[in-house]
Design a protein that fits this description.
Layout lengths: L2 E5 L1 H4 L4 H7 L6 H6 L8 H14 L7 H9 L5 E8 L8 H20 L4 E8 L11 E4 L2 E4 L17 H6 L5 H8 L4 H13 L5 E3 L4 H6 L1 H10 L1 H7 L14 E5 L2 E8 L2 E4 L5 E2 L1 H10 L4 E3 L1 H11 L2 E6 L1 H9 L1 H7 L5 E4 L2 E5 L1 H9 L11 H12 L7 H21 L4 H29 L1 H14 L6 H4 L3 H4 L5 H8 L7 E5 L1
Parallel strand pairs: 2-3, 2-12, 3-6, 12-13, 14-15
Antiparallel strand pairs: 1-15, 4-5, 7-8, 7-11, 8-9, 9-10
Amino acid sequence: MIELEKISFEETQNFSKKFLRHVNSEKINLKNIYLKAKEISYVEKKRKVLQKSLVKQYEKINCSNKVVENINQLKNKNTFTVTTGHQLNIFTGPLYVIYKIISTINLASKLKKKYPKKNFVPIYWMASEDHDFDEIKSFYLYGKNYSWDIKTSGAVGDINPKTIKNLFKNIPEKISLFEKAYLKNSKLSNSVLYYMNELFGKYGLIILDPNNRNYKKLFLKVIKDDILNNSIKNLQSKSSKKNLVHIRKINFFYLKKNLRERIIKEKNKYKINNTSISFSEKEIINKLNSNSEFFSPNVIMRCLYQQSIIPNIAYVGGPSEIEYWLEFKDFFNFYNIPFPIILPRNFVTIINDKIKSKLEKLNIKLSDIFKNKNELEKIILKNQSKNKFDLINEKQNIGKEIEKIIDKSKAIDKSLNGKILALKKKTINEINSLEKRFIKEEKKNHQKSLNELDKIMSKLFPDNILQERKENFLNYYLSDKNLVDTLIKNLDPLKFYFNIISK
């Protein structure tokens, strides 16, 4: 039996004001997302390139009928996409990656149900061109961190996944899904394609690898403009806005086997950072025309690239993603590229039976788990203690009595008010100190319960961060193979709350 409790984002105290303003703007709804389709002028040529490239990408994958149907529908002018994306974290990465995908699948499904005359396809955009291996090489399972320790360079999507073999020896459980994914493929991007398809293929999710020459050709005009004319940097320099993401003159990397480095212009030469490679302007133009696949977008250009190659109406992201997407709106306008509806992913904490039972024994409600430690301890003490250890009423009464004294002094000598107020402050401070002492002593009497609370909170907030940002999907999937189905059934992509799921 699944129980779902919703906590407002504000109550969790985990979200920025900018994020909350965006979520509460009332612009994010099914109708507005649907209306975005009218802004998409996606030429037939692009659709053909997209469809053919995906067919090629999936040729060795056992696809569900729904995935095949969705890929073919992309040729149709009435088909639009809903997209999320992430780095190629090993073993799926932290839980929130799964929540992003589920939000995307459910949103596409909702749109189709509401507007059946159009097709809506969920897409997972693999960040296969990223080069920061340190960000993807580890995962947290059963309270322990596991790391893939190899030396590598270049795009992470090109890493040989078979080198992860030794890691399987240390993992406490045999996981055939990932053994097949990693040990039977020659590229990490293909491994991710395999296991994501196994997990989400039946829902029609398309996994897209953007490291593709055909896609880059569709984006070539923008690539050239940024490298040769620095338009984004020039646009930003004229603006009074402060950008969260550092904007460079050139926002592309040079990408080849074992290499992904920034392109820097010095005098009349285009140099590849940390290498001896350089081009004249004529040479780099020739390279752009002949090998567009060698040019890889940074975080700014990745957003523009995405919106240029797929007919996308909505992007599902986390708080940081939402903030930087909103920063880039002017750049989309400059290139006349449609800006999607940006909406938050689902946010979830999963509580198992054991922890739920312990919380109930401590009289702590699920909705209380985001309260700070002192507040939670007071709840336990209040419920378990026979003694009245807080002095709230006493402080209020003292305040009232001193106000009476002040009223009397006004009629006699107003100069006494300062002394009386000083006495009030001193008295309240003394009572506060006494109250803290009461609580301290009472804690000793209930130390067992408070220790239990610490254990529970360390499970729900490992390393004092949200469960979804630390724990791996396998922590729950290994004991419940229906987890994805459960989450898809219970999560609503347009209900903007923090979800607590208890089983």
